[in-house]
């Protein structure tokens, strides 16, 4: 309810500021997941079905304890993370392709997914940890910029379409008899 003791000036003029409500940064927090995966890239030699069967068998071995996930990732994964045992590090929402992210978010801690097909190939995913972190000011700014950019793109597209329709000339002619 307090009012700022001095006027605030900006390019838009003078402003009187009054605090109406204060909220904690809960809306500025995001859930991050620490995961690792094994990726088999599909090719003419390895179909998605064959890769799925292979990863399904590998999953059974890992769950039975006869094979370690990180060792299997080092030996079999076709991804740059293979050298690190398939470790993808901490990732927030939107960092992975939707199929991967949906499967990862459904897993409990320590859970191993069934094979997941994405545009990169077939994945086996394991969730190691989850945490809630506050977004940094830089990330918030980038999100705001992206949202404004998309809004301006939509407006520019609508304006372009209106302009195109306004300039279009259509002549209807009767077919010759």
Description:
With 177 residues, the protein is of the alpha+beta class. The chain contains four helices and six strands; from the N terminus they run βββααβαββα. The strands form two sheets. Strands 4-3-6-5 form a four-stranded antiparallel beta sheet. A two-stranded antiparallel sheet has the order 1-2. It is flat. The model has no long low-confidence stretch (mean pLDDT 89).
Cross-sheet strand order for the largest sheet:
4-3-6-5
Order of helices and strands: EEEHHEHEEH
**Beginning-to-end CA distance, first to last residue:** 81 Å
- Return Rg in Å: 26 Å
The average pLDDT score comes to 89
The total count of strands amounts to: 6
How does the overall form come out from the CA principal axes?
flat
Fraction of helical residues: 25-40%
Range of strand content: 15-25%
> Unreliable segments (pLDDT under 50, ≥5 consecutive)?
none
Query: Structural class, from helix and strand content?
Result: alpha+beta
Main β sheet profile: 4 strands, antiparallel
How many helices? The count is 4
Task: Pick out its properties.
4-stranded antiparallel beta sheet; 4 helices; 37% helix
Secondary structure layout:
Elements lengths: L7 E3 L2 E3 L13 E12 L7 H17 L4 H8 L10 E5 L6 H9 L9 E3 L2 E14 L2 H31 L10
Antiparallel strand pairs: 1-2, 3-4, 3-6, 5-6
Summarize the structure.
By secondary structure, this protein is α+β, with helices and mostly antiparallel strands.
């Amino acid at each position: 309810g307090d009012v700022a003791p001095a006027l605030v000036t900006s390019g838009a003029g003078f402003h009187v500021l009054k605090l109406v409500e204060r909220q904690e940064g809960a809306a500025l927090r995001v859930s991050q997941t620490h995961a690792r995966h094994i990726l088999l890239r599909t090719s003419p030699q390895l179909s998605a079905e064959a890769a799925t069967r292979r990863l399904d068998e590998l999953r059974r071995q890992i769950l039975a304890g006869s094979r370690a996930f990180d060792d299997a990732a080092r030996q079999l994964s076709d991804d740059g993370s293979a050298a690190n045992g398939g470790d993808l590090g901490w990732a927030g929402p939107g960092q992975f392709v939707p199929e991967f992210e949906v499967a990862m978010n459904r897993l409990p801690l320590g859970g191993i997914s069934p094979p997941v097909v994405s545009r990169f190939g077939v994945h086996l995913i394991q969730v190691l940890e989850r945490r809630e972190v506050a977004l940094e000011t830089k990330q918030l700014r980038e999100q705001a910029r992206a949202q404004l950019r998309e809004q301006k793109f939509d407006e520019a597209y609508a304006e372009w379409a209106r302009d195109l329709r306004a300039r279009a000339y259509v002549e209807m002619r009767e077919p010759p008899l």
